[in-house]
Amino acid sequence: MRYLHAVALHEKFVASGEYRYFRDGEALAIREKWTIHELMGGAIFYRVDEDGRDEDGLSILSEAFLNPEGQIERYNVQSFNPKDSETKLFKADYSFNEGYVQIGRKVQGQDREYEEFPLLVKCATYIKQTVFMGLTIRDVLANGGQAEVFAPQLLSMSKNVVQKIIVKARGDESIAVGRKHIDAKKYQISDDVFYWLDEHLIPIKRSYSHNGFQYMVQLTNYAHR
Predict the structure, then answer these.
(1) What is the pTM of this model?
(2) Fewer CB within 10 Å: C terminus or N terminus of the chain?
(3) What distance in Å separates the CA atoms of residue 215 and residue 217, rounded to the nearest whole number?
């Protein structure tokens, strides 16, 4: 697994896993590995390595710092794709504050930019990487099932976006993960996007459709303390 910063000696293991991607039932050469560690004082640190080098070429490395209350305070991301000249090396740092997020970003060949992006009251964070979606669903449900969300820019050609998400509970299911079954709660966030979360808010499974294809993301190699 690649990472922006290595695990420090004082970090305590919480969980790790890997997401595999399928399109119309066929496995894609995309692996999304992640780890979660606890820091001193009860803060939590996520690391994600989204590796598509053997598929479309895209790599996204990220990390997130959550305060002891479980809210994201900092998110750092780096993305690149040597197979696509449109996707330039991109680095961004997001620091979340009450009412706004401080953003520093750098696209290859351009000067680093800084911005303060205003956030609405009770605006949730929507990081478009699978493992973070449990946090988004938790925060939207805490706001009555619908909320404005801030989606950080992950790629050089994309933008920061504020949008509205509605989350609907769709019952409980038992999902096979390796040789065991995990009880999960199913949620719908749009007409064709579904997530299954375990008791720790870890997405066990995700399904969606895009450009006429049906995609499924499945958790493997899952461990939790």
Answers:
(1) 0.95
(2) C
(3) 7
